[in-house]
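Q: What does the assembly look like in three dimensions?
Context provided by user:
Components: two
Sequences:
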Amino acid sequence: MNFSQQNISDVRNDISKYVIRTPVLRFDFIDSLCGCNVFFKCENFQYTGSFKYRAAINAIKNIPPQFKNRGVITHSSGNFAHALSKASKELNIPCHIVMPSNTPKFKKSAVQYYTKDIIECEPNLKSRELTTSKILNEKRLYFIHPSNNMDVILGNSTCALELIEDYQNLDYVFSPIGGGGLIAGTAIAIKNFTNNCKIIGAEPSNVDDAYRSLISGKIETNRTTDTVADGLRTNLGTINFPIIQQHVKEILLVSEKEIIESLNIILNNLKLVVEPSSSVVLAALIKNKSKFKNKNIGLIMCGGNIDFDNLKF
Amino acid sequence: MNFSQQNISDVRNDISKYVIRTPVLRFDFIDSLCGCNVFFKCENFQYTGSFKYRAAINAIKNIPPQFKNRGVITHSSGNFAHALSKASKELNIPCHIVMPSNTPKFKKSAVQYYTKDIIECEPNLKSRELTTSKILNEKRLYFIHPSNNMDVILGNSTCALELIEDYQNLDYVFSPIGGGGLIAGTAIAIKNFTNNCKIIGAEPSNVDDAYRSLISGKIETNRTTDTVADGLRTNLGTINFPIIQQHVKEILLVSEKEIIESLNIILNNLKLVVEPSSSVVLAALIKNKSKFKNKNIGLIMCGGNIDFDNLKF
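A: Here is the predicted structure of the complete assembly.
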């Protein structure tokens, strides 16, 4: 699947009034630590606290007309559920969310704020998909996958587009990889709008399906979901993978310890609230800093939804 | 004491290469919540995580020549200790910090990174001052008060100066009040560089010395230090108070509950790490939003040093 400049520009024009043009922040501390010039694209400041809102609003704007009254459905325990429920409310489309029964309360509350139609399922992929199919068929809804969907990828591409408009001389842009929707969107923006900028993937070693998939040339699956980066536990999708194969030459792996250390740097030194899925990209840069000396590096901080309930005052 | 435009501009030129020009961030969520246009001046992104670095670097640059080898001393358990220790190291001046024995470990570690000369005292003002005097006399050091000092006030003024350069049509700027150094600095910048912008103080009800001082016309003291806004526990100084009397017509009080609620909004919705002393100003705006409808409001987020050790993953 190829996307043109025009495809991406059209989507950006379509959704720009619904999304926040998030700031790009710089931190001397990080430049010194990493020995390069680092540009943080802060999607933690996006509506619903993650880049997923770009995807959700674009997907909702593009549903076929016959579904506008009946509505949409997705399965997600996290940021896409939050994003889709708000985007649907914004555009007045009914929204159903299938959510695992073990979803943390603060995430469920965020979705409940926008829709009452939350359907619980067992906490495994099979139950998610079965429950979704059942409701989808009963109510004749439109299914929007959180990452493996063209409108989602195009919505995501607007994040990197803004970043390279703000800073045109980036040598690399780092994106985390979970389902692959963000890095695929990042890749099509970078490839269409820059000449030499390269896309680097960052992935937890514990769920290194994308890393292994690039090597084997087919979609590999994870044997565990055991990572603190809860947004990156999912497997690559069939639409995302070929885009990633085409444009992403390198995926850097990081350990759980490295993810948490970089999260602590972002919270304590940069004073930004991000989730571990975001800190994965900083961890990958810190770990490999000798390879990126003096370069201009964009880091996509994909989201900021962490649970502060444990904070005591 | 009067300060001119020239005084403030000179200081800004002197220190601009040492400080971060912190970004001003906007959040639709807050504009909707408060019914006005809110501009967050993010000093949590300043070096050492607070506006105090502006004060510290200016004070260090202005010490009399005979003290350059012997060094400086202050008493502080928090942000000024951190700021002064880094500023001193930056300009190669020896720095001594008197710190209460009950200072949280993360704050002490931050200072230890820059200086070995930390002297513990009993956790009360009398012991702080006695210990400081003793070392000061023994070592013939230069004393820099964390808030009640002209160079400190002038350094602080550069924060509001940047804010009003970025947004020239502000109707109000809110500043927290602890020792009074930040709001005094804010006031002299606003009064010298704008025509109609007003300065609003925000203070915890539990330590409302500034509020009572404005009414009585003399410096009142606090009977307790019992507030979560640990940066605002100190009393007004003799240099700051007349400046505040002259320029600050209104101080808004907020409860501990309101401070914590607004802190949670900033962490969870805005995705910024700030300390409770910063959330006091948002709390004051939310509580009084009907008075500020449709106005352009600058809020100084004075710092972001909170302890995340309790966060569990």
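Follow-up: The CA atoms of residues 184 and 240 of chain A lie 6 Å apart.
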